[in-house]
Amino acid sequence: MHIWQRLKTLVQTELRHLTTINPSNRRWQMPVAAALATGLPLMVGAYFGHMDYGLVSSLGGLVFLYAPNTPLSHRMVWLMACGFGMAACYALGVMGHFFPAMLMWVITFIAILVTMVCRFYRVGPPGSLFFVMAAAIGAYSPGDVQAIPLKVGLLTMGALLACLIAFFYSLHALRLDAPQPVSPLPPPTFDFVVFDAVVIGAFVGISLALAQVLQLERPYWVPVSCLAVIQGATLRAVWNRQLQRVLGTGIGLLLSWALLMLPLNEWGISLMMIALAFVIESMVVRHYGIAVIFITPLTLFLAEAATLGQGSPAALIEARFLDTLLGCVVGLAGAVCLHDPRFRTVVGTQLRRLTPTRLMR
């Protein structure tokens, strides 16, 4: 009877976490601007008959989501720095495509470095996620060496367009709400900046290595899912995010299947992705799991729209679910290690010995 009571309490707790809708003061103009930042490049690509170009540029449009609620001068410099980081990560990923044996190490290095930078500068959500996602998608995009400058240039143009949209959006938003002051950065600590970044990057690399060993068709979703889960501030937050991501992905794949059945052309795909981006940015601050339902088809079309119709939708849906599930499991295992005091003591001590003393001051 005692065990039954504990099980009932546990189920009630999980249901409460799953069904809690957080309040939000986000104005509708922000989701509209975010949707335009990712959707306009797709419409330009559809107009010129190069949907693959538009998809690369729309990745750069994700930079808009890093806009802080600070004065305009600080906000624009911040966004341009994020745009440069996104382009650099994508360039490394695209170049890594031609060295398959080194690809796991390339993604691991990017995840560690970007996580260190994001933690040093206290970059808020989505943190290092989209930087690593851009690198992973670039690493598994087909193409030749001569196309590298074109791809990087397209993503950079998408990031510049996002900065331009953010500028005009900010002019309007700052008339409605006063900006937050730029807070001084707290002193960086070894555990928060270095140790956490190394552990997170290591598990991102492990997730990709497992995907390669299992010969998954689209392994780039595995490290992205791993990183999305492991970034939680607490183990409870990680578990909530993992559960919401798995359930949201499952429902989102059903939605994706329905959308794949529609006779969408390039213009239809562009408009649909604008609508999805608007819903995501409206919901993600209220309930992550509900947002994931719409994130799933958005990211699926973002990576696969150029090749849709060339394979079975069922195979695409199944592959995406397995990728997400594997990434979440590895991410949860990494979070358990990351938040375990004994693991931090043992591994942290060894890591400090390998780190030059001047870098820990």
From TrEMBL:
It comes from the Bacteria. It is a multi-pass membrane protein. Keywords: Membrane, Transmembrane, Transmembrane helix. Residues 207-333 form the Integral membrane bound transporter domain. InterPro entries: Memb_transporter_dom (IPR049453). This is FUSC family protein. The keyword Cytoplasm does not apply. It is found in: Membrane. Pfam families: FUSC_2 (PF13515). The chain crosses the membrane at residues 28-47, 76-96, 102-121, 154-171, 192-214, 251-279, 285-303.
